[in-house]
Amino acid sequence: MRIWVNKDVRLRDEGIHIAGGFHIAGVSHVISTLWKMSDEISSELAGAFYANIRQNGQDSLDMDRAPYALHDVVGAMRREGVHPMLWGAFIHSSP
């Protein structure tokens, strides 16, 4: 098991969450959840999210659209009447 150690004295008390860990590793756009979600809902959201950022139906992805794509997908879930506990956990973060 590897544990990341924060060597910056000014940040010793700062927690490193999974999204923050991805940012530290260089990932610019991270979609994560604020609480545990079912695999079924996560899979549905991920499918719609990736369809939304796919460029012109090609295999390449427009990652700059990530926050907008999540907003669109969550908005669609809201309009469909999906309970807020099932869409409210998903967040986008970037450094």
UniProtKB/TrEMBL annotation:
Residues 12-93 form the CHAT domain. It comes from the Eukaryota. The lineage of its organism: Eukaryota, Fungi, Dikarya, Ascomycota, Pezizomycotina. This is CHAT domain-containing protein. InterPro entries: CHAT_dom.
